[in-house]
Amino acid sequence: MPKLGVVTCQILELEFAHVLSRDPDVSEIWVLHDDFSEELIRVLEKDNQKPVLRVKHANEFETDEINGIAVLIRVMEVGLHSNIPNLTSEVTTAVKELAPFVDSVLLGYGLCGNALKNRNELFKDIPVPVSLPMENEDPVDDCVGLIIGGRNNYYAEQCLCAGTMFMNAGFSRHWEKILAFDVPDKLLHKKDKIVKRIMGNYKRSLLLTTIVLGEDQLRKNTKEFNEKYGLKIETRPGTLTLLESAWEAAKRTDRRKIQLDLKPINSTLAFGITTPYLHK
Predict the structure, then answer these.
(1) pLDDT tens digits for 171-189?
(2) CATH value of 3-135+241-252 in 3.40.220.10, 3.40.50.1860, 1.10.150.130, 3.30.70.360
(3) What is the DSSP annotation of the chain?
């Protein structure tokens, strides 16, 4: 049985639950169980379409010889993007953890502020292919670029309103944790002012509706956020097409090392938590 690994942020928990639970090729879903994977497990078990097994360590991933694909998932804490070197380190460590037990690893990330732009170097010692969701020949920018359908759509919305807070399903569910980023101790008493100053650059909240979370629930999830920061609400259809394509590509890989020359982009945007920025 093929064994595929997934390392993903909590932001994409609903999307991966949807893709994996409905893929007829997937026979078993194994999840490294911790605080960050609780919601993914809950959603998968609610769908109840195939076995969901919890393990504490990757070396417990032992599948029987049955037809289909066995998937091992590591869910990473939301908000790692607030410190780019930390995001790079944590994702690399997670890939190394899964690699000895799977045939390939798919990352539920994009370039994420260029944290993963040097994939060949980061994963040069990994004996299995490691892939990112791609748009044509380039990795997607981040989880927003993934769900909005690529860089052109992302850029177009920023041109319409540079102060756009992009709300995909995961952001709408975890925004409080995302905004709870660390600041130096000497600035703790000013943290609220810092956040309000950052958010003062934003004018609208763009809800990206998909099959995993529709407009009504997105509005409900973000009501407090939008009222707190005075953002007008607009909507745009999102898509799971790029994630589904990435998953299908990961299923077709084997243990041969795949080298891709990824093109770094001038991207500092990570989940929209920066001063509004346009890709050049």
Answers:
(1) 999 998 888 765 566 655 6
(2) 3.40.50.1860
(3) --EEEEEEEGGGHHHHHHHHHT-TTEEEEEEE-SGGGHHHHHHHHHH-SS-EEEESSGGG----S-SSEEEEEEEEPTTGGGSHHHHHHHHHHHHHHHGGG-SEEEEE---TTTTTTTHHHHTTT-SS-EE--EETTEE-SSHHHHHHTSHHHHHHHHHH-SSEEEE-HHHHHHHHHHT-----GGGGGGHHHHHHHHHTT--EEEEEEBTTB-HHHHHHHHHHHHHHHT-EEEEEE--SHHHHHHHHHHHH--SSPP-----------STT-SS-----
